[in-house]
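Two quick folds needed for the group meeting slides. Do the first one here.
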Amino acid sequence: MNNQTTTATDPRWEHCLRMISSNISREQFDTWFAPVGFVSYDEDGQMLTLSVPSPFIREYIEEHYLRLLRAVLQQQYGQGVRLRYEVKVDAINNISTREDGTARSTSTSSVVRRDGVNASPRALQHLDSQLKADYTFENFVEGDSNKLPRTVGLAIAQNPHQATFNPLFVYGGSGVGKTHLVNAIGLRVKELHPELRVLYVSAHLFQVQYTDSVRHNTVNDFIAFYQTIDVLIIDDIQELATMQKTQLAFFHIFNHLHQNGKQLILTSDRPPVALEGMEERLLTRFKWGLLAELEHPTQTLRRDILCYKIRKDGLRVATPVIDYIAANVDKSIRDLEGVLTSLMAYSVVNNCEIDMALAERVITRTVGVSKQHAALTIDEILMHTCHFFCIDRDDVLSSTRRAPVVQARQVVMYLAQQHTRLSTTKIGAFIGKRGHATVIHSCQAVTQRLQNDEAFRQRIAELEGLLTQ
């Protein structure tokens, strides 16, 4: 009479492993199947239970080796064999979760020990969130260019379990406040929900950690750690472009956190549509929640930021000097802070007031911004470009696809991006109500042609000379 359940070891599973190893490389087998262990086989129910060290291993096997696994199991255990996993969630206490083996299974039953006794995972160790304590909402000055992302950030901090803004994908140019905003969200979450695990990490550090985990054969621990986070903040996600293996690890982390109602917050210097080298399935997930653009600060916001920092540092700066700085330092908030720090240093060292002459000298030395550059508008760029290419303004703003018009339209968008601080959204809206994706494509097309077409490069240089006269 056959036993109801086979436990401990099973020659049939050992034979399955030998068959699998003969069909894939040694490295693949050691990485994905060597950690898999036999638990039991229920003869009556034809249920094979295997142990895997992490959800990441299970997901990867079923995504890449399901057909092979199914074939060898059916050969050894029969056509009706079913598969179930015990996934380790706590190696120290030997706690696992049981999951049915299907192509896209995400359902998980209650947490059980290997002996079948119900258990709860042990308390997780204290986590250093890596947040910058001085990047708060209190000193994140609100203006028209950042109102939406700031408002959404506050909403997430109040209720990090809501799904409406998950993930939050914040994008914008360098120095517009992305890092400040996401740190402010993390700090407010910790203040309002101290029980949650919040982690801020740059994409570069994430990549370094993943590479180290591969080198030390601890990828499972790397994945398992990130899957314990309640609010995961990754800065400069564009740095993972072309890093295919790191993207795969992040894909599984993203899926696990999102499916379990954990908040993801990502920043980038460009929108998902412009992230070349990023897997399509990740780009799709980036768009599940909210895409929020942090635009270059308006002159009003720049002035408000200056006033706030001047009050905070106890400085005395005349209103005309503040207005001059706000009008001429228009690239980023980081530049504003740099100019103000330099002004304070010059004032202290030379024992002089911060007047207009000092402001002009410091701005020229630190950011090199001229009043002419700051005053250039997209309307002027459009006018000069149309005159230069002998194209009618209305044609550029229309939907016509005639080649000369398309060229002039793309050049206008490119020059507007180079010589103004308008967002791609506002540039597109001005040029015939086009979307920011069109602007990005146009700028990329002009940039590529500048690299490959000497005559075109000379013509654009001539046009830029006219603009800056």
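Then this one, please, same format:
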Amino acid sequence: MKVTEHIKQAKGKTLFSFELIPPQKGRNIKELYNNIDPLMEFKPPFIDVTTSREEFIYIDRDGLLDKKLTRMRPGTVGICASIKHKYNVDAIPHVLCGGFTKEETEYLLVDCHYLGIDNVMALRGDAMKEEKYFTPSEGGHKYANELVKQIVDMNQGKFLHEVIESDNNSNFCIGVAGYPEKHLEAPSLDADIRRLKDKVDAGADYIVTQMFFDNQRYFDFVDRARKAGIEVPIIPGIKPVAVKRHLQLLPQVFRLDIPDELVKAVEGCKNNAQVREVGVEFAVQQSKELMKRGVPVLHYYSMGKSDNIKKIAAQVF
């Protein structure tokens, strides 16, 4: 079922969802199940699975370092199929511009269609670690709105090199990312909203925001989006602080502000176990306020761990 259909059927009730990271190559998928199982009592209608782009590794060959391009966390579509089969919930693969050609994207979408996957999350993706700025792969998309258009075209039977008349076309529901504190590369919030509208005008059906810690940033972001003519559901993304280094890491990586109230509480913790409790309590209060304002879904960035997400959900849902 499409995300937008889940939201419509909820009739104003806030739904629970979360996002997973695929395990690294060589790890057992059972580890993933062990972190999904505790969250199923909250009846998530859908679960997101991230996609990792390629990265360089260095292999020692007789004292010489050989630079190789690889993917450390493959398997997104396979994991989605497994989740759909095991838990009978909709699993949403992230589809990236970065690291993929248009042809590779088409093949991935065909596989998703065969597997009965109804939703995809269309993202530009980050720059590689060695890059200062995002560079598209040769033969790939530069912007997420271009990726959205390719998915919409495929829904209409328009493939890259031919049009196929069929009564069994894909019908993907398309999610895209929004940034309450603007994308780190955007020159202004207004410019970022215009780029978001480009994605919606291209055919995006819903928006999931980047993490934020100040709910007013989300409320202001939604107001700006609505004034710009964006009418699709806007789902807030929540990430509980879990370790002290998040105070430096999250603002640096995601270009976001952490409220001083939370900063002081984390700084006062003696260890990361206390930090996790502070993060849970802050996320609970954040979630309750968002729920009171009628958000369609509360979407949690679990980073593959479920213990703190379960504690939050138990107090909210």
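Slide caption for protein two: The two ends are 22 Å apart (CA to CA).
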